[in-house]
Amino acid sequence: MSTMLAGRLDYKTGDFAMEEVPVPQPGPGQVRIRVAAAGICLSDVHLIDGSLRLETGVDKVTLGHEVAGVIDAVGAQVPAEWQVGRRVLLQAGQPCGACPPCLLGRVAQCQHPLTRGVDYDGGWAEYAIADHFTLVGVPDDLPLEQAAIIPDAVSTPWAAIVGTADVRPTQAVGVWGLGGLGAHAVQLLRLVGAAPIVAVDPIPDARARALALGADHVLDPGAADFADEVRRITGGRGLDFAFDLAGVPPVWTQAQQVLAIEGRLVLVGLSPQPLTIHQSTLFSYLRQQVRGHYGSVPEHVEQLVSLVGHHRLDLSGSITDVFPLSEAPRGVERLVKKEGSPIRLILKP
After folding, report:
1. Are 186 and 264 members of one domain?
2. Domain count of the fold of the chain
3. Are residues 146 and 184 in the same domain?
4. Are 110 and 55 in contact (CB under 8 A)?
């Protein structure tokens, strides 16, 4: 039996290691992808360090939910459009297929969605298996390294902006955390006409990058006059939306202090910490809201592929570095240390 290299996380022991495992075979309705690129996400880091603990039905998993490559083998009952040699990216997850909404055909309302590289094997490997309905075709002029990060790094902020928040032109928006998700959020907010866009990060290089990507203003969250500056920038109104891409409690406190009347705090970054509403009477009086957000739906990924194809969105600057698959631990370490303030690091088999 032929084998391949894969980055595997043991949920029981917490150990992450590069291992030789059998090359998977596609079943009915599935294809096998020869992986060309897989992103390293901060949630992968949190799974490895144990700070993100999720209930899954498996003891061990190949990490990686941002994946692109070329179809290598096709199982039975796969639609004819998915042929060997076609370039594709993989949706970062799929419906469980077993909950009441799924059984009634309402998969968009799935109560237990599954995440690639968390609930089932992902793309930190030479090959990956995917159900055909999770495939999205990639145009020939879109590099697979860029295509790989569209699910999650780009689609998660996009879904938060156009779905959960429903941002409209000229609404004032703040973005906290300018890493992989936040950097793309700045680009996407400019695309939908948000103004002004205030980008917030303690790292100077990240703030400078946000300006280059389209932010109107950048602020250090540690500045003593932070709240006054936000009020000045917004003409005294405050922010219509505050997007937390960092997932840390100090952001929630600071964002609440600069929300406008009917302003909304949108939680995109994941955190196990409890959320506190400060000055809850004022929060209610001003009719403010907190909205939770997670991931995206297939439509969002398809929209982004189209936007890139029509040259409305440029992801060429999003790939900070590429590592051989065998050096996945080194890539993880670089993301942990934030060396070079990376947007996305890519693994390449």
Report:
1. yes
2. 2
3. no
4. no
- Are 106 and 88 in contact by the 8 Å Cβ rule? The answer is no
- E strand or H helix that includes residue 146: helix 144-149
- DSSP-derived letter for residue 125 is B
Buried b (16+ CB within 10 A) or exposed e, 85-102: eebbbbbbbbbbeebeeb
pTM exceeding the 0.85 threshold for the entire prediction? yes
Report which secondary-structure segment, H or E, holds 251: helix 249-257
pLDDT tens-digit readout, 227-243 = 999 999 999 999 999 99
Residues 6+ apart with CB under 8 A from 257: 227, 278
The predicted structure's pLDDT at residue 1: 66
What is the residue range of 106's domain?
3-152+296-348
Backbone φ and ψ for 31, nearest 5 degrees, come out as -130, 160
Beta bridge partners of 241: 173, 264
List, in order, residues 6 or more apart from 77 with CB less than 8 Å away.
28, 29
Give the up-direction half-sphere exposure of residue 180: CA atoms within 13 A in the CB hemisphere: 28
Domain membership of residue 57 (yes or no) is: yes
**Shared domain check, 241 and 225:** yes
Tokens 């860029």 map to which residue? 146
Q: What is the pLDDT of residues 188-210, one digit of tens each?
A: 999 999 999 999 999 999 999 99
318 and 268 in a common domain: no
Judge if 17 and 142 occupy the same domain.
Answer: yes
Within 13 A of 96's CA, how many CA atoms are on the CB side? 13
Residues 123 and 73 in one domain: yes
158 falls within a domain:
no
Instruction: Kindly write down the DSSP assignment for every residue of 158-179, as one continuous string.
Output: HHIIIIIS---TT--EEEE--S
Are residues 42 and 15 part of one domain?
yes
Query: Is residue 124 included in any domain, yes or no?
Result: yes
Number of CB atoms found within 10 A of residue 217's CB: 18
**Which residues, 6 or more positions from 41, have their beta carbon under 8 angstroms from its beta carbon?**
65, 66, 152, 153, 180
